[in-house]
Every structure is written in structure tokens, then in C-alpha cells.
Amino acid sequence: MRIARFIGGLVAGLVALTLAVVFFAYWLDFATTTAEGAGGGTLAYVFLWLAFGANLLLWTVIGLLRLGEDSVRSLARGRGAAESEHERIAEGAEHERVLVGAAPGGASAVAGLGAEPGSTDLLAPPGGGAPAEAVEPGLRLAVIIPAHNEEPVIGGAIASALRLFERKDVYVVSDSSKDATAEIAAGTGVNVLELLTNRGKAGALEAVIDEFQLTENYDGVLILDADTELDSGYVAGAKRQLRDPEVAAVAGFVVSEWKPRERSFIGRLISAYRDRLYFMLQYLMRFGQTWKRTNTAFIVPGFASVYRSSALREIEVNPKGLVIEDFNMTFELQRKRLGRISLNPDTKAYSQDPFTLRDYYKQVGRWTLGFWQTIRRHGVWPGSFWAALALYVVEVVLVSAVLLVTAAIGLFVLVGVVGGEAALAWPYYGEGYTAVTALLPPMAILVGLFVPDYALTCVMAMVRRRPSYLVYGLFFFPVRLMDAYLSLRMIPRAWTASSDGRWSSPLRTAVRSRSVAV
Questions:
Q1: Backbone angles phi, psi at 387, to 5 degrees
Q2: How far is CA 8 from CA 3, 52, 88, 471, 494, in A?
Q3: Residue 79's CB: how many other CB atoms inside 10 A?
Q4: How confident is the model at residue 204 (pLDDT cuts 50, 70, 90)?
Q5: What percent of the chain is helix, strand and coil (3-state, nearest 5)?
Q6: Which of 8, 117, 291, 467 has a 20 to 30 A CA-CA distance from 370?
Q7: How many whole angstroms separate alpha carbon 42 and alpha carbon 89?
Q8: Which tens digits make up the pLDDT trace of 42-53?
């Protein structure tokens, strides 16, 4: 069975790679050979910008520089460790007559090197991976799980936390839930705070931090969404990054939950689209933004991220008027210069995406509104953070506007293509069709909008070994249009609407197991 899966994955990857090369070659040929009169070649490169963006290119290059520096440092560290080991062995050989028998105290002497005897944190989590406390024994982390009507998933989130933490270090705050969220949490033996008034996620976080004095009793706080499960290596990865005293927050590395048998076609489409989006944002953009030489990341995602307590004490977690908290908390970090943000793929967590387009629309709308509200609240300040953010904001607005206008033009032209002479005979439409197609030929629209984007999907199908993405990718463009529309629609609302942060969870499904395909 494993051999068959390996062969199947290899074949699917080759097919996806072949399609990616074919589509990109076709686009390149179109851009260089079919530019006639109306500047079709220039338009094709505009469409390539719509598919990938200048920000992605810039931060990909910077990310490669970071990767190169990290690789050189890792090699140097490896050589240094080897030399130290060689010296230690040589020194031991010189004094071998002294090293007879165990040191007094035996196990307690070993424990004194960095762990208390009998500490349960020394146990490796199920499924392998480095023991959490073996990485940084002196660093204590608390886990907060804010929840509002999360009965189907709260048990899975708590179970994933208990694989890595002791019960006494897990804190669930039920934000006036009307279902059995609080009862399920209490049944697991973790700490539970139930709020009688719905305060929203930020208000719930503020309440549980104050109630249990978490920033005073712990070195760091992990905020975990109720629909999210931690990877077995999450804690070890987070503590490795927190070894650097300059790191104020560790951004979780989100992986879209992929359980196709439990979802409808729309649900699978959303998960596939999100998986591609997360891959690009994290590997090709945020990896470069979180390099210690740049530190310009504008989001520490609230689904599964760690804040150092010393920094969290300085953050205003729950200001008035914001619909979500994670953009604001990140801007607080950056504006107050509380430390840098770290991101590495060793802090993975698996998040459940919306199941329906309605829930997807509401979720993206909240996220986008929260982003613009945060910009409104904090304003502009000098520095590299805002320089990078300004470039991103300008591109988001331009790409969204051009994408929507181009799609509208495409629909206008499509009416003429499908309707033929009958449509062209309509008053004013024929003249408009002729004028538009002279500047923007139908083939330019089709190739420009679809081909580069789908070629990227083919690459993702190869990387993720999921040939089904080749089917779902055919429908990604309407979802992109929805994202573009929400990006622009929420700008005026951010300056006219005041939010109380209260939430309404999307449709959830029970998490049966943490064995999520990655």
C-alpha cells in the first residue's frame, strides 16, 4: 500500500509539474509573440503581477537571503559542536584515571543540569519529537483557549494541548457560550473560566490573563483557537525560537486541515484555496519579513501563537472598536518596539477552515475589517515596518481594484462572444465591445487572468502531492474575486463602523484525530 501511494504521489507530482511548465510556457509565448497593436505583451505582464505581486517577489528574495544566512550559521555551529566534542573527548582521555564511577548524587546530579527529577514535561509527546522541556527547561508556557459556542471542536483543541502541556498549564475561557463548551472543558480537568457576558475574543483573553495572572506566573503565553490542533513539535519549536531574548512573539505556522471525506465540494475548494494561500504567504512572504534583519511582519496569527510575558504585559489586548485582536497585538509589538517576531515551520498547527462560502465570506470580511481598523487605530509612524506595510497596502488596493475591473470587463466581453451578432446589435453595446476588445482582446483577458494563477496551483499540487488541486484550482478565481471585493469594501467601513469584538463561530465539525495530512 505504501509503495502504491508513493508511486501514485510521484506520478501526480510529475503530471502537476508538467502542467505548470506547459501553462507558464504558453503564457510566456503569449506575452512575447501575440502583442499586436494594443500592447498585449504589456497587459500580459500586468496579469502576471496580478497573479503573484511585487511583494511576493521582494520577500521571496529576502527570504532566500535569510535561508542562506541560516544555512551558513547552522554549518558553522555544526563544525563548532564537532570541535567541542572532539576537545571534550581529548580532555576526558587526559584525565581518564579520575573519571571512575558515577558522580555522587547519580540521577539527581543529571537532573540538576536543567530539569527536576520526575518532571512529566520530560516525557516525549505521543508520535515522537523532542521532549518539550528538554529544549528549554527553564521556560514555562501557559496555554489559553478562548472559545464561544465551540462544542464540536473544543475537546480536540484541549487534547492536542494536553499532549504537550500539563493540565494545570491549560486555561480555557468560555465567552458566554450557550452550548456545552464550558462543561466539556471542565470535564478534562483543565482550568476553566466562564464569562457570563459575551466580551469577544480579545475581551476573553484579557479576562483570563488577569484572572489567573498568567503574565506574572509564566514566561510566555500560547493563544490557541478552539478549532486548532498543535503539531507534536510545536512546543519544542517555539522554545527554540524563544531562546533568543530579542524574540517577543513566535508566530504559529498554519496548516489547513485536509479531510476531504468530511467536506462538501465547496468545503474542499476552500481548504485547497487556503492551503495555497497559506503556503505562499508563509514561505514566500512572512519568512522574509520575520528575518532578524527586517522584522516587518504585521500579523502574528491568533490561531496558535506565543507571546513572551514581558511583551504581553505591555500590549493593550482589548482596545475599543476592533473586530479582531491579532493585527492590533502585532502592531502594538512593532510600534512599542517590544521585540521581534519569529516564524519557522517547526511551529505548525492545524486549523479548520470554513465549510461554506457564506462562512468564508463572513470570516474573511472580519479579518479584512480588522486589518483596516488596526491601521486606523495606530496610524503611521516612521520606520521599516511602515515602509513594508505601505508597499503591501498599496499593492493590495491596486491589485484588488484592477482585478475586479478586469473581471467586469471580461464579463462585458463574454456577453458579446457568447451572444454573437445578436448581442453586438444592441444599442451602444456593439460600439463599446469594439472599443474594449481593441484595447483588451478576449484572449488577453482569458490567458492573463487564468493561466499564471493556474500554473501556480499546478506547482502547489506537486508540492503538496494532492492531484485534486488541479480540479479545485479551476475554481480559485471566483474566490480571489471575493477576497478582492472584501479588501476594498472594508476600507470605508473601518473608518465608519465601530466593532465590539463579539464573535459568531462558523459551522464546525468534530475533530476526530490529530493525524492530519500535511
A1: -65, -45
A2: 8, 29, 49, 17, 48
A3: 10
A4: very high
A5: 60, 10, 30
A6: 291
A7: 65
A8: 666 666 677 678
Q: How many Å apart are CA 303 and CA 296, to the nearest integer?
A: 20
Indicate the residue type of 202: A
Closest of 348, 337, 280, 371 to residue 63, by C-alpha: 280
Contact 228, 334 (CB under 8 A): no
Give the residue range(s) of CATH 3.90.550.10 domains in the chain. 131-383
Q: What is the pTM of this model?
A: 0.83
Please state, as a whole number, how many other Cβ atoms lie within 10 Å of the Cβ of residue 383: 14
Name the nearest CA neighbour of 158 among 171, 149, 148. Answer: 171
Give the pLDDT mean for 459-468.
Answer: 89
- Measure CA 334 to chain center: 19
Interaxial angle between packed helices 476-496 and 265-281, expressed in degrees from 0 to 180 and rounded to the nearest 10:
70
Q: Which three cell numbers stand for residue 364?
A: 474573511
CA 54-56-62 angle, to 5 degrees, is: 105
Segment 7-25 mean pLDDT: 77
Handedness of CA 12, 61, 291, 296 (dihedral sign): negative
Among the residues of 425-518, which ranges form H helices?
429-439, 442-464, 469-472, 476-496
C-alpha cell at 232: 507534536
Instruction: Report the top-level CATH class of 131-383.
Output: alpha beta
Can you name the residues that pair with 83 across neighbouring β-strands? none
Strands 220-224 and 191-195: unpaired
* CA–CA distance, 399 with 393 (Å, rounded to integer): 10
